[in-house]
Specification:
By secondary structure, the chain is of the alpha+beta class. The chain has nine helices and 23 strands. The protein has an eight-stranded mixed sheet, with no helix packed on it. A four-stranded antiparallel sheet has the order 3-2-5-6, covered by helices on one side.
């Protein structure tokens, strides 16, 4: 692109403090369908806060509202990035692109993490690489690539739905955990236009997948805060150069949306520099086979089921790219979620229902760990899968039954049922019968520590007087943050956790603690509550 770009016709909006920072560029349709742009084609640069995850992670979830607020002249109050919390970016700069797609944003701050996106056809098209302007390089040029929407969504099909199902028994849980990894491949035969229903551009669900959850999870609403342990997802297209990339010093808990690493209790820390998480660092893409797609968004959604309980869903409103050289374009979605069967009910099963607005061509399942799988169409009288073929590796592989055309048509609902085979059920029953220590049996070491502390206080009383020690004990109280840390680390009951959560909420509402500390402590306490529910034995 030529270095000298003509100035934009419209005045720029945003903070007006003089600054040499500038981003110039153009919008480019990769299929050259759109060559001129209507008024209201906004380009926005958003200054990300330091605690924000890399912009490539932000756009992998829900993020568009903050850019829309800036483009429409509103003060952005919504969070962007992540499923449960996200970060808040309040400083943005906007300008309209010219009719031929050129733009130049000026007066941009230096040494700030800047995110760039343009709204074309109502859908934000981002540049996932963060921009960093300095005194030495205050001006950069960027091209915002995109595909024009408009392909006939009736021509889409789900070319593949594959599931990998596994279980590794753990005696410290109340249930046998089952992990399900699903892969969906949606095809678009159009060679020029991308496909996304018009109503989905405005937020209506395009691809909606109900989520599994551990049988001891008290509420599926908690799944959003358990991303990275109980839930993972990604979406993309086939990479042109698929290859693994070992993490380097830039990889600080990548693809956790900047949240707390619940396995180690550490918050992700970022420096004052542009941040990045490579696609091949994602746990579901370690082979580098996918190049992630950033247009559109993915968000967490709750619905009430027949029993008035929360049912959790992920909604993927992502465009399916056009094809090339006669081959269809492909959008690939990968989802990892978990469930389980209670040891006390070894014959129990897990149900997973799916329905798509496009026909399904192929369904395949791989299972191991003593698991059996069946699939049926709702309202049908026969199964969708053949008897499995068990290989030397112990994997049971299920292929679809013989069929002509599509396996299922658009809107036809099907259910997969998972259960353990007879031998595995015997093992589950054996684990259920293993005796467990009484609930208070682990309290002995703590009691010994209390006794030692009491002895110390007794010595102090002898030296300084009983009255002084009584006053000290009555008036001394650790800070709420220290108390909550002790609750999080000690062997405590459910009432203690609920009390700590209540105090945490009150402290945050009274602005006694910063938002980052509040989110971190709340997530730790919720993780502890879920872990407590998962432990075998009577509940506290």
């Amino acid at each position: 692109m030529a270095a000298g770009l003509a100035p934009c016709l419209e005045a720029q909006s945003g903070p007006v403090a003089p600054s040499p920072g500038a981003i110039a560029g153009e919008l480019r349709d990769l299929r050259q369908v759109t060559r001129s742009f209507e008024p209201g084609t906004w380009v926005v640069a958003l200054a990300l806060p330091r605690e924000s995850p890399p912009f490539c992670e932000v756009v992998s979830a829900a993020w568009q509202d903050a850019f829309t607020d800036i483009a429409e002249g509103r003060d952005p109050h919504g969070k962007l990035g992540g499923l449960a919390s996200g970060v808040q970016a309040r400083e943005g700069y906007r300008i309209e692109a010219t009719a031929d797609g050129r733009f130049e944003l000026r007066n941009l701050p230096l040494k700030r993490r800047l995110a760039l996106a343009a709204r074309v056809q109502g859908l934000w098209r981002p540049v996932t690489e963060e921009i960093w302007l300095t005194e030495e390089k205050p001006r950069v040029e960027r091209v915002i690539d995109f595909y024009t929407l408009g392909a006939d969504v009736r021509q889409l099909r789900v070319a593949e739905h594959t599931l990998e199902i596994k279980s590794v028994l753990r005696e410290d849980l109340k249930y046998a955990p089952v992990t399900v990894i699903e892969t969906l491949v949606i095809e678009n035969p159009d060679q020029r236009l991308a496909a996304l229903p018009a109503e989905s551009v405005k937020g209506s669900p395009f691809i909606e997948l109900e989520l599994l959850a551990a049988p001891t999870l008290p509420d599926k609403a908690l799944l959003a805060s358990l991303y990275g342990t109980e839930l993972l997802f990604c979406q993309g297209v086939a990479a042109k150069d698929p290859r693994p990339v070992p993490p380097d010093e830039r990889a600080n808990s990548p693809w956790l949306f900047g949240g707390v690493d619940t396995m180690h209790g550490k918050s992700t820390q970022y420096s004052d520099a542009p941040q990045i998480s490579l696609d091949a660092w994602h746990p579901l893409n370690l082979d580098g086979a996918l190049e992630f797609i950033a247009e559109g968004e993915t968000f967490f959604r709750l619905k009430q089921d027949a029993a008035d309980r929360n049912a959790a869903f992920l909604v993927f409103n992502r465009p399916v790219p056009p094809g090339e050289n006669g081959r269809p374009g492909r959008l690939v979605i990968r989802l990892l979620h978990k469930s389980g069967v209670l040891y006390s009910q070894p014959a129990g099963s897990i149900s997973l229902a799916r329905v798509f607005s496009a026909p399904l061509a192929d369904l395949r399942v791989t299972a191991f760990g003593g698991l059996e799988v069946a699939a049926v169409k709702v309202g049908g009288h026969s199964g969708l899968l053949r008897e499995p073929e068990v290989g030397a590796d112990g994997l049971a592989r299920y292929a679809p039954v013989e069929h002509s055309g599509n396996l299922l048509e658009a809107g036809e609902r099907y259910v997969l049922a998972l259960r353990f085979d007879r031998e595995a059920q015997k093992r589950l029953a054996e684990i259920a019968g293993i005796p467990r220590p009484a609930p208070g049996a682990q309290a002995a070491p703590a009691a010994q520590k209390v006794l030692n502390v009491s002895a110390i206080y007794g010595a102090l009383a002898a030296l300084f007087g009983v009255g002084f020690v009584i006053t000290l004990l009555l008036t001394f109280r650790a800070s709420r943050e220290v108390q909550r840390r002790r609750v999080n680390e000690a062997h405590v009951g459910k009432d203690d956790l609920l009390r700590a959560l209540g105090e945490l909420d009150r402290d945050f509402e009274a602005r006694r603690i910063p938002a980052s500390s509040y989110l971190e402590q709340r997530k730790r306490l919720l993780s502890r509550a879920v872990d407590m529910e998962s432990r075998k034995g009577p509940r506290s």
